[in-house]
Design brief:
By secondary structure, the protein is an alpha+beta fold. The chain has twelve helices and nine strands. The N and C termini lie far apart (115 Å).
Length: 362
């Protein structure tokens, strides 16, 4: 069986294909997948499920789905890494950005009979089209999700784990060892990241990775934090696509609704732009509007933040250019050989040649 890139789109989902993100599939457009009917149970609903196993690369480890397709569609996440299919973030981060405790479904019952009935009702609602978590997430954008999302796949997550015996110098497998024979680059002091529960990650509770990402996001500057310098009326727009898909005219048409735009400076090399408003009130209105919904121009999600003040000059004025001293006349170095002196004729010194001419004339 072969899987293609359309597996991440759950709109055409059926029971014969897994729901996997681009990172778990690997860089190859086609992946050979081993299918086993009722080989294991779902880690969330504990029902027997079909298991898929694949290797996303020659240097990657074998991967498989840990939840069934119904549970994956109920939360719109990858059935292997349990990350959101659109933003590649944990469920807890997505729910916190959308302002709800759970996306689409309530907490799953704990008893076996109630859990079985709940999953059956969820499966029927998914097949009938009444429930679609993917459409719900896309219709409610968030600036926090735009900041924390991963736009490109991170294939480094697919690498094989490090061989602990190689680190100790006792591995005897050599090239046949399925683990990587490399030494760890750094030692992580935060041991809580290694204690992750699949059910907690699925329901978005007690997830140390999500808590770390949210703490980092809270410490980052926000559009709601207006700078104290009232002279700042410039907004920074980053993440512009290559090829000029978003031009200066497109930015002008978008920001003109908030007031007069004095200037727009765009840098193709750095893929960013600076939009300067006429007054501070116009800039604050634009920042307040995009703080919740984010910035989207021509279907492209962009990053937006306040511009930084320019570095002050010494004394408030530009220093005058320094005058360089005139170059000194270089003294002509004495010629080491007579033949190199243009005032002489031949290789003989001038005194010796004059003496020879005087003797010839007498």
């Amino acid at each position: 069986m072969c899987a293609h890139r359309m597996l991440r789109d759950t709109s055409g989902w059926d029971s014969s294909t897994p729901i996997v993100c681009d990172t778990c599939l690997g860089p190859s457009p086609f992946v050979r997948i081993i299918e086993q009917e009722y080989a294991t149970e779902c880690k969330v609903c504990t029902r027997p499920m079909k298991q898929w196993r694949w290797r996303p690369g020659s240097d990657a480890r074998w991967k498989s789905n840990v939840v069934c397709s119904v549970c994956a569609r109920g939360k719109h996440l990858c059935s292997c890494c349990l990350l959101d299919l659109d933003y590649s973030v944990p469920v807890a981060v997505r729910d916190a950005a959308l302002g709800e405790s759970s996306t689409g479904v309530a907490v799953m019952p704990q008893s076996g009979v109630n859990r079985e009935y709940y999953v059956q009702q969820l499966e029927e609602s998914i097949k009938s089209g009444e429930f679609d978590a993917q459409t719900k997430n896309r219709s409610r954008p968030s600036e926090l999700l735009n900041q924390l999302q991963r736009s490109t796949p991170n294939y480094g997550r697919n690498k094989a784990k490090l061989c602990s015996f190689f680190a100790k110098g006792t591995c005897t497998r050599g090239d046949e060892c399925p683990f990587r024979h490399e030494l760890p680059d750094e030692v992580y002091k935060d041991k809580s990241l290694a204690k992750q529960n699949i059910k907690d990650r699925y329901h978005g509770t007690n997830d140390p990775v999500a808590e770390k990402m949210l703490r980092r996001a809270r410490g980052a500057p926000s559009l709601k934090d207006f700078p104290e310098d009232r002279s700042i009326c410039t907004m920074y727009v980053g993440g512009l696509p290559e090829g000029g898909a978003v031009s200066e005219k497109d930015l002008l048409d978008h920001f003109y609704a908030f007031g007069e735009v004095k200037a727009i400076r765009k840098s193709e090399a750095k893929r960013c732009a600076f939009v300067t408003f006429a007054t501070r009130a116009m800039a604050e209105e634009a920042a307040r509007t995009h703080a919740e919904m984010g910035l989207t121009v021509k279907g492209t999600k962009l990053r937006m933040m306040w511009g930084r003040p320019s570095a002050p000059r010494a004394g408030g004025k530009r220093p005058p250019p320094q005058q360089q001293p005139p170059p000194q006349q270089q003294q002509q170095a004495p010629t080491p050989y007579p033949s190199m002196d243009p005032s002489q004729m031949g290789a003989a010194p001038r005194a010796k040649r004059a003496k020879q001419e005087g003797q010839e004339g007498s």
